[in-house]
Amino acid sequence: MLLLVAAIYAMPYVIDGDTIVINDKHIRVLQVNTPELGECYADQARQFTREFLSKRASLTLKADPSLDQSDKYGRSLRYVFKGKENLSLELVRKGYAKPMFFKEAKGKYADLIMRYANQAKANRLGLWNCNGGSK
């Protein structure tokens, strides 16, 4: 498994809830999809990601060997950890993101992502409360 550890000295730039820039490198958070800017709950997802990354701390970026390493836009596909917290899991658990399995490929955390998504949906958290959860 590829591992990249980035000591963060300045706030990473948050493009949206699932895309960030660290040291000029675009990172797409693995296995989740937050609403696009302008859609219901997009601003909240983006703000959550900002807050998650806001404390000066080392982040660990982990690739998943069973998944693509980059997307068609050239972004690195990574799980983002701050300490033991996994941004992908937290986004889904709190209703900021839905699972996204590109070409049905499921990574290391897919089962947990699905469990958290089902719980968030059942509780109508976050984006699951937008238009009946259709967005």
SSE order and pairing:
Blueprint: E1 3-7, E2 13-16, E3 19-22, E4 25-29, E5 32-33, H1 42-54, E6 58-62, E7 76-82, E8 85-86, H2 87-93, E9 98-99, H3 110-122
Parallel strand pairs: 4-7
Antiparallel strand pairs: 1-6, 2-3, 3-4, 5-9, 6-7, 7-8
Give your account of this protein's structure:
Helix 2 packs parallel to helix 3 (110-122). Strands 1, 2, 3, 4, 6, 7 and 8 form a 7-stranded mixed β-sheet that branches. The model has no long low-confidence stretch (mean pLDDT 89). The chain has 135 residues and is α+β, with helices and mostly antiparallel strands. The protein starts with a strand and ends in a 13-residue tail after the last helix. The chain contains 3 helices and 9 strands. The chain has one domain (3-133): Beta Barrel (OB fold (Dihydrolipoamide Acetyltransferase, E2P)). A hairpin with a 2-residue loop joins strand 7 (76-82) and strand 8.
Total number of helical segments? 3
Termini separation comes to 33 Å
The third-level CATH topology is: OB fold (Dihydrolipoamide Acetyltransferase, E2P)
The overall pLDDT, averaged over residues, is: 89
Please trace the helix and strand order, writing H or E for each element.
EEEEEHEEEHEH
Quickly count the domains. Answer: 1
What percentage of residues falls in helices of 4 or more residues?
A: 10-25%
Low-confidence stretches: none
CATH structural class: Mainly Beta
What's the total count of β strands? 9
Beta-sheet strand percentage? 25-35%
Rg, alpha carbons: 14 Å
